[in-house]
Task: structure prediction
Amino acid sequence: MAVNPLFFRKTLIAGTGLFLCIFLIVHLSANCILLLPEAVARGMYNSYSTTLRESPLIKIVAYLLYLSIILHVVYALLITIRNRKAKPKKYVINNSKENSSWTSQNMGLIGTMILLFIVVHLANFWARIKLGIGERPEIDIAGNVDVYEVTYSLFQNIYYVIFYTALMIPLGLHLNHGLKSSFKTLGFYHKKGLKIVAKISLIYAAIMAIGFGIIPFIVYLK
Ligand code: HEM
Result:
């Protein structure tokens, strides 16, 4: 039996999206280390970062993460292009309030802003720490790459602080809409259950946006 291409694309976006949501929980928890007093935070943050880079199991998860980001973006783009080309009558009819929200109408724009954030963010950290591009990071007394210092020096620049914080608004909107939509796409249609999912999505998105948005400011002010 042939699989409907639109169904396949949407399922892939939902599945990779959920995986990325889990990554963000882990990533935010790790970045909360930055808020601890420096004496504890530097060592913890740097050794956590070394574990991420050197553990073979985490390396596999990291490759899955990159693949998920690429698939999520490419298939979202394909669907956006398809929807633009389609005449209004060809749209899947769904009159629910949520599907006609500003966020759902502008997922393309919001997604592009997040993509811009990810490109800048990976250039700031990942390219420098993992690929060794640009200024070589220092090594701390335990022999780990001083990722803590890289982060603190980046967030001494108010423009980066504003950029990171501002871009958490589209991220929050995207996560709120994306998380609840992914449940529907994956076939979860229980009416009461969907109301709970909508609340969880809102809380999740708010924690992610506020959490990631506030850290650069706290680091700047520390
Ligand atoms: C306060 C905000 C954030 C800080 C301080 C931060 C910090 C970092 C650092 C230090 C790394 C490099 C880790 C390493 O290789 O040792 C990293 C990687 C990464 N970050 Fe963030 N991050 C933040 C927000 C975000 C957000 C909001 C996203 C996604 C929307 C994100 C996505 C990623 C990804 C995909 C990687 C590459 C992961 C890997 O290769 O292990 N980050 N981040």
